Amino acid sequence: MRLAPYLTHRIPRSSVRYVLGVVAGIGALLLRGMLDPIVKDQDPYHSLWLAVIFTAWYCGVGPSIVAVLIGAAGVWYWFLPPYHSFGFKGANDTFDMLVFLAFAAIVIGVGEAARRLMFMHEQAEEQLRRAHEELEYRVKERTTVLEQKTAELSEKAALLEMTNDAILVKNSERVISYWNHGAEMLYGWSKREALGQPADDLLLTQFPISVNEIEASDYWEGELRHVRRDGKPISVASRWNRVKDKSGRPVGWLEINTDISGRKRMEDAARSLSARILTLQDDERRRIARGLHDSLGQYLAALKMNVHMLAAGGENQRAAECLDIIDKCIAETRTISHLLHPPLLDEAGFGSAARWYVDGFAQRSGIRVNLNLPSDLGRLSREAEIALFRVLQEGLSNVHRHAASSQVYIRLAVERDCLRLEINDNGQGIPAERLEHLNDGAAEVGVGIAGMRERMRELGGSLEIVSDSSGTRLQVAIPVGERSESAEPTPTRPDRNHDRIAS
After folding, report:
1. Single pTM value for the model
2. Which end of the chain is more exposed for a tag (fewer CB within 10 A), N or C?
3. With 0-12 CB in 10 A as exposed, 13-18 as middle and 19+ as buried, what is 193?
4. Domain CATH number, residue 231
5. Residues 298, 279 share a domain
6. CA atoms lying within 13 Å on the CB side of residue 493
7. pLDDT above 80: residue 208
């Protein structure tokens, strides 16, 4: 144990302590001198015990030894015969002196031990007092922090209760542990009824993807289908945030749901209207194409016959010019008619119509087109064939107008449960900002990209556009059911001018 702390706690500085030891020794001798007429030679060490006890208790080991030595020397010199001499005093006196020194050493040792024990006791009390004060301070500080956090949590809880969104907290087993007022209003289940219930079972949740995929990350956002207490299905925009404990271990989920049922109904209505418009547009194109072919085409054919008759009457030069103009009108009329709605699409299917259109596009635009179609394509549903042809039409039109491409690759792949049509060009690509708008559905409407996307959505398919400086890839996919496995049928009404029209 280090002696410095207790030596300085109750004991004066070193020089003062030794002075006190000297004074105690001398004082004991003076007291013995004063008592000498009374006690004579009997027990000359009585007064020295006071000095020994005082210095051992108050001054420490060193000053105590000094006091004992001074006292012993004084008694030996003044109070033992022969007096005033340090010579030998006799065996009994020498024995008494040794006994005094021995007991003095014992007293000094006991006093030092007691003094140290008292100091340690006082030091322990001081440490206990300081620990108590520190504990009180920390308790008070923690209480203040706890009160502040409680107030903050109460305020946040009040805000959570005030929001219109449904907010629920689920543990790692997706059992509900918190259910706010917004959740009560949205789903119809009270807090008492919802707490402790599995959220998926209570709300009959329909997920767009697997739950394991959602829980693989710390945050997820998407649309869910729920069922209210009254049995009414609703759509919600759901945000999931993982809840973790202080050690970072995941313990549950915070889920915030916003009712979007009204918006979904409006979107479905708008989508149905858009699909209906596209269907009416296709029907109108078919009607106009048939009208051009059957009405205007017949009139032009009759006009050509009359001009032939005039040519037979002698007006050969002018008749030849008129015949040439009529032939051009007939070709343009048939081209417009077939572009609006090719008869091959109804008669022979998408494969034949696609080959006819690609050949004509290559001749008109000067762009080389590589078309890859499966040999056993067969017939598809009327809606699928129209949608694929319109995508092909619009895709090649965009390549011709915007891509500055010299070559286009078209491939139709028949997979197990869907058809994939890809149109790839080697043009200049689409700027990143515009590509983002196209993929977000914020671009053109009508027969453009938005029209193609709406056709795919109506059939349960998808549309994807990927572009960079090396070119652009347009890909659509539509699900297919059972279809004919036979080869493409021969057109029931072949057109002798088919190749001419395509050019």
Report:
1. 0.41
2. N
3. middle
4. 3.30.450.20
5. yes
6. 6
7. yes
